Amino acid sequence: MCMGLVLEGGGNRGAYTAGVLDVLCRNDIYIPVTYAVSAGACNALSYLSKQVKRNFRIYTEYAADKRYCSLRNLMKTGCLFGYDFIFGELAKELIPFDYEEFERTTMKLYMCSTDVETGEPVFISSEGLFKDISPLIATASLPVVSNIVECRGKKLLDGGVVSPIPIDRAISDGITRNIVVLTRDEGYVKKDKPDFPLVYLKHRYKKYPKLVEAMVNRPKVYKRQRELCYSEQSAGRAIVIQPSKPINIKRSCKDPELLEEIYNLGVKDTNARLTEINRFIACAEQSDTI
Hints:
The chain is α/β, with parallel strands linked by helices. It has twelve helices and eight strands. Strands 1, 2, 3, 4, 5, 6, 7 and 8 form an eight-stranded mixed beta sheet that branches. Helix 1 (14-26) packs parallel to helix 2 (39-48), helix 1 (14-26) packs across helix 11 (256-272) and helix 3 (54-62) runs antiparallel to helix 11 (256-272). The termini are close together.
């Protein structure tokens, strides 16, 4: 079946995505190929390992943990997130990840990062991921508050810089039907400027002018990819699941009650579309047999 799942990032707005994916899991809806960025890729791991509510627990129990995300981490390591903790004690002991199920799955995951030297997207498969976790760290490494990640001969940062909603990659790979999960509501309008002052970016990344250019162009790319999602939906080639009301939190929101509310919104919105999703998948399967 030529069907894909496309996941936007968005930091802890990803609690919404966690709710969406848990509804899919509970209804045995497993999409063959996922294209994901940043927090979307992190959520996708528990989807591939079929662990319902694992990401819910991470958001609500550990988002406020200083080992998970804190200025202390940033000052000590140069990175806001404590990846040693996240992929160490958290994944192995506190909320164990099912590595065996992840290795068994036939589902594929492609994680998007940004090549800081070329300013182009780099998609890396999750195959063999836990022998080399760097592709996952790279896709979630936000500029300014993260270190550049050396990965497979490239220097990488967060994929959301150049491909915040990687539906165009799914289409170019021949995926004819996609379920897209966004973490912004339909009325959201992105400001037409980079997240940090241009003067600062040029100083911070003076060795990487293509990265700076990509960060300046990101609002245009984001708008173009969102419009592509909607046009694909209008043509019957996609379903766009997104918050039915605005999610007004910072990327690093640590309030467990707010994050639970966002997760529950993802559950509610997806349950409301479940009949439509099943019909969409059935049509895709039928067209594949013709």
